[in-house]
Specification:
The complex is a heteropentamer of chains A (about 425), B (about 240), C (about 290), D (about 240) and E (about 300).
Chain A: H1 2-23, E1 38-44, H2 51-70, E2 74-76, E3 81-83, E4 85-91, H3 96-108, E5 114-116, H4 121-125, H5 127-133, E6 138-140, E7 156-158, H6 169-181, E8 186-192, H7 195-208, E9 216-223, H8 231-239, E10 244-248, H9 251-262, E11 270-273, H10 280-292, E12 296-298, H11 301-304, H12 314-325, H13 334-352, H14 358-368, E13 373-374, E14 377-378, E15 394-397, E16 403-407
Parallel strand pairs in A: 1-4, 1-5, 5-6, 6-7, 8-9, 8-10, 10-11
Antiparallel strand pairs in A: 2-3, 12-15, 13-14, 15-16
Chain C: H1 2-30, H2 37-55, H3 59-86, H4 91-114, E1 130-133, E2 136-139, H5 140-162, H6 164-174, H7 176-181, H8 186-211, H9 220-234, H10 241-259, H11 266-278
Antiparallel strand pairs in C: 1-2
Helix pairs in contact in C: 1-5, 1-8, 1-9, 1-10, 2-3, 2-4, 2-8, 2-9, 3-8, 5-6, 5-8, 6-8, 9-10, 9-11
Chain D: E1 6-15, E2 18-28, E3 33-37, H1 44-52, E4 59-64, E5 67-68, H2 74-79, E6 82-85, H3 96-103, H4 109-122, H5 124-128, H6 139-151, E7 157-161, H7 169-184, E8 188-193, E9 204-209, E10 212-217, H8 219-225, H9 227-233
Parallel strand pairs in D: 3-8, 3-9, 6-7, 7-8
Antiparallel strand pairs in D: 1-2, 1-4, 4-5, 9-10
The chains are: A alpha/beta (about 425), B alpha/beta (about 240), C mainly alpha (about 290), D alpha/beta (about 240), E mainly alpha (about 300).
Chain lengths: ~425, ~240, ~290, ~240, ~300
Amino acid sequence: MNQGRRRGFLNALLMLLITLAIASPIAAGAEGAAPAEIKIGHLHAASGPYASISMPVYDTLKLWVDQQNAAGGAFVKAFNKKIPLKLISYDDQSNPGTAAILINQLITQDKVDLLVCDSGSVLTAVAVPIAREHKMFLFDPTGTGAAFFSKDNPYIALLADPVSTVWPRYLWEFLKSDAAALGLKRVAILYATNDFTGTQASAIRAALKEAGSPSEIVFDQGVPTSTSNYSVLIDNIAATNPDIVLELGYVGNDIAFLRNLQDQDHKFKAVFTLYPGIETNVLMKNVGAQGLAGVFTYVTALGLTLKPEIGMTVEELRAAFEKAYGGGGVEFGWNAIAGHVTGLVIGETLAHADSLSQADLRQAVFGLSGKLKTLVGTFELREDGAQIGELTPIGQFGPDGKLAVVYPHEFATAKPKINAP
Amino acid sequence: MSPEPLLEIAGLVKRFGGFRALDGVSFSLGPGEVLGLVGPNGSGKTTCINVISGLYAPDGGEMRFAGRPLGGNAMHRRARLGINRTFQSPRPFASLSVRQNVELAAFYGHAEGPRADIPALLASLDLDSLAPRRAEDLNSAQQKLLDLARALATAPRLLLVDELAAGLNPAELARMAERLRALARGGMALLVVEHLLGFLESVTDRVIVMNAGREIFEGDLSAAVRHPEVVRVFLGSDHAG
Amino acid sequence: MLLHALLGGVVFGCYFTLIGLGLNLVFGVMRIVNLAHGDVLMLGSFAAYFLFHLAALSPLSAAPLIVIGFFLLGLPFYYLVVPRLAASRDAEMLSFILFFGVQQIIEALAAIAFGSSERSIPARVLGIGAVHLWGQSLPRAWVISALVALAAVLALYLYLYHTRLGLLTRAVMASREEARASGIDIHRVSAIAFGIGLALAGLAGVFAPFMLGSITPAMGSTINLAAFAVIVVGTLGNPLGTVLGGLVYGVGLLMMQTYLSAWADLLPNLLLILVLLVRPSGLLGRRVRLA
Amino acid sequence: MPADLLRAEGLAAGYGKVRVLWGAGLTVGAGESVVLLGPNGAGKTTLLKVLLGLMPAWAGRVSLEGEEITTWPSDRRVRRGLAYMSEIGVFTALSIAENLAIGGQFSPPARLRRRLDELYAVFPDLAARRGALAGSLSGGQRKMLGIAKALAGAPRLLIMDEPSAGLSPLFVGQVIGILRRFHATGLALLIAEQNVKFLDLAERVFTLEGGRVGFSGSVAELHADNALHRAYFGLGA
Amino acid sequence: MPRAARDFLRVGVPVVLLFALLPLFYQNELLLFNFVLFLILTQGLNAVYGFTGYLPFGYVGFFGAGAYGFALAVMHLAAPPLLALLLAGLAGVVLGLILTPLLRLSGAYFAIANLAAAQMVYQIIANPALADITKGPYGVSLASVFAPRASYAVALVILAFVLGLVAWLRHGRFGLALQAMRDDPVSAAMAGIPVLRGRVVAWLLSALIAGLAGGVFAWHISVFYPETAFDISISIFAIVFTLFGGAATLTGPIAGVLVLYGLYNVIGISVPQYFQLIYGALIVGLVLFLPRGFASLLSRRGIDVP
């Protein structure tokens, strides 16, 4: 009986040791000499709720790495030569606990040179303290949560999205100026109660309530992010007789909202939603040009066609993406661009860092601030690592499905129009 | 009958849906007395035990134990008051050993006074050699004995015995009868539900014959088997001899 | 607003009846909890999506194909998995785990095959614009989905109450043991019920792109939670009780959206717990299931 | 000697690790009426379940008209003319008519209809309440329904588990009367009982003690052998 | 020596020592921490499922309550971590008390109701209306108390406590009474065992353990969202590991965690592209071919598994 128990326990122990042995990678190369490859550690979510924002980032980051390697690798200033890149990307299945372990695995076992976390705030959150603990500089592609950034944490920079408190700045400016001038004064805010859109709603709410604001909030409610039908909500909003409806949610929320809107008699004078300008392909496929006509949204690189000083233009990236992943069920959109921008920042960092030490990497990244002009605009970091460049203007879809910038005036290509009530 | 009854039952009623399983049963039982409960299947014998032991709440009537009303006490409280039972189909703690089965009852179901001597109890029921075995590995006759052992471990003052004899061979039956009589001699009150009339005759002082939830006879078993209604109801024909 | 929420709730609830219907049938007949129900529904959605985009089949014509296809898939799946599961000691509990594993497999395969982006079928396929009922306007897709759901409930009713196999199915639901003792081939009856369960999930999936905005491989788990609420509030194990559960769920949800929208997703869980504590057998149930 | 209708040899079976049957065997001839006597816990129900294929046999064989059926599923045995009435015997959640339809599930509709007409004539209480749920019937009526259900498929052998359980003597008499009536038309019976009244019906008796067959023979032999008293009353008469 | 103490020394102490020493050889401490976390959670689940038969599908509710109990104590009371941890355990117990009426339900009804209850706790905590208290959907950051080494050490202490507790349950009188109730509540009551109270105590112990686990998790991870603390896969993993190890034993859940969670991480790290697929198939295979757990491989051969 004792023997059996001991045997069972020893077996279990053996299993664990095998586990650990397999999990441990072969030790990294010697210090000093140029490494054979630069290891970029990354997480993605191939399944689960965050897959749809995570996979495009992964795809274009991988694309960028492949392109660099095809050209002989990325130029690394520290060794003054091109070195091939190796992307190690694990699947966290949208599970934060697993993401935490895998981030740690990248740091402690794979001993990656650069660390890139997964997309979205929930999966980014777990990486922030771990990176900090291990004094690894965290390249954060799209995790915009305001709580990640503090002056006492030098180990993070947000690369490809503005921090969520800053993101809606043009929106509230637009509401208080041009929109109000058009008579869009009664504002309804419907937001999904998650970190991303909840924070945006708070920022907008605060701005619209400032003294002297011409806008009046007539409806302000949160709904669970899982909300997938808006018919009754639309009816309720209509009852408050707003001039403009802001619906702030994830892709799925926006699709459901805009589809329900088409199905109903209520036609608001103006509607703003987040994602038509962020994941335009997805929205176009799911809602259609007719459903998007007249809708206000954020304009990202997709609509701006800025001339990048580095990397591809939107159209070049789109073409490369379609060639590599077309038909694979991952749509080209803002998150795909974010992956590319992440790659560009990494490339520039390697090209400018004096060594591969995390401190030098950080210095190089912050050195790019205000100088790097990519297809999403100017890369600009606040001192706590939050992204404050790359602002997203306000645009409006025309009846032909074309997105025109309407605010701010320096980018504007058209004037905002109101639907016939 | 002793002057102060231990258990007094008056007008006990238990309904299941529209079916009256007990329809006004009354009797009393004193210390050291053995009362047999007889009747055809479905006449309410087991229901009677279930109500007294607290498994079912009665729909009417009164139960007093040692002078106090019994109703409102949960099963485990009744066990601690000194009421215990066996089950028609044995209900051991299947995953525990025989000894653990009995020890638990001795610890939790104990009222007052010295604790039961478990080795002696097991030995008296020929369970000592099975003590380390898991209860689920026992056959059904052994499990019945385990039921009895567990009930006795709580040192009950009233023991409700539900079809204990079935499946025992004649020698075992004789020993079982002697055991029950010994318990009664020690002052325990016993209520015995049994099909085996021969067994019952060797154990009981008097019997109650039940039919359709009612008593139809109370008295001596030898008188009962001559009572015309009892013969009609219970035996049905003269085959029983 | 109240009338709109009520009416919308009834129509919306019909669709949620359809979501819970198959799950409840499977539980009723087999006493197992199909945690992969929502993922089967997801597969139905993708089937409808591809039939529309590749074969230009409208959802209403794709629906019968999907129903038949999923039914036929259910039969071998039943025989592969369920008899083995049913033979284990605590099948009801183990089924949670088993179908969690199945759910993982389905979701993983779907993510590999279909990618992660939101997809849908254009709303115009079922007709754009509102349907007017008693002065209230409701999305056309809701009304069509509700009608299909009612048709499915009717079909299931006819099957259970007016066919020989349906009678045997109800016998198995009433008592698996007695059914075996009566010479019923419970595995055949259960396999068919399992197939019907999957077919109903697939059918609900056809309308998901219209009712839930868009579809992704990850949608299954959210749907499961709603389906649980619907069938527990209805009556676990009584497929037709699902109708009541769906209606309570639909009306409750839309009322919450109207008056306390941020707390709307609390409601199904609250209902579920309240119903279980107050009437453990469900609103229609007779059997009481207490420990 | 004509082949036995049902023959069981050396059956062993049980639950989990506990063996209940220890090599039990019995035979039922075509049209014969057999009573299996034995106290609670002797293994009667287990034996019947093994005969019906509701529990697997650990050892031994069962044959029907000489053909081995030991591993057949229960539905196949029912199709071949066995019927079983368990102690519960009915689906309480279904109506009387539905219960009977389930009993006759393998009969062609026309034959089933004729059969049901016959049964309703024998059981007028049931005929009057065809649409009522079986759960609404009294204990005695349920037992009648159980018998009718088992007979609806026109079996050749009816296997019954304690038909007297929960019945008043009046009903027991009725049950026996009805069984006698169908037996007279050629139905073979195998009845597991404690109630000796059923010996009235028996052409042959087996007693089961501790998972083994103790006595087998005629009723007269049983009385002479004193086995009845040993098995049933426990103490020698 | 009592059997409980013997089992604890032979099984519990080596496990705790193993995880105390492993960080010296293996740097992915978070992986080790998660092993410890699931070792705690599976034994907590074992206390209620293994010993009373109730399957708490929403076990993560207690875990999340503990995590938020810890976070609230740190944020609002500026409590030191160890005190906050006690409050986390208390949060689990309080939630357990509130959910005690669920024990009236059985089987799938209990499992589903418990899942719904866990969802409700999540939805309340994550609601923006309570953002001032819980930070709602915006997540909490406990950078001020972040201490991975200390929290790992405390997790080991909790593990030792929990293993000792389960060893006691397995052989102690109270645990035997629980097993008796699970086998047959009626005869347990007739043996004088207060069935209802026994169940409630086991339930609250189990809630306490999950609350402590949630608290130490919050401490260790320090930045998290409600989705993280109430991730339903935490429940499911704990159940799967317990079941496949073998409930109602001390070693079963340990073996379940070491083997299955080990495999989970091996698959996730070595074949990320088919991670979910392989793990799902593994679970299905185990339910079908080893429904009574690894422990049954031994106990079937008559070997007593501690």
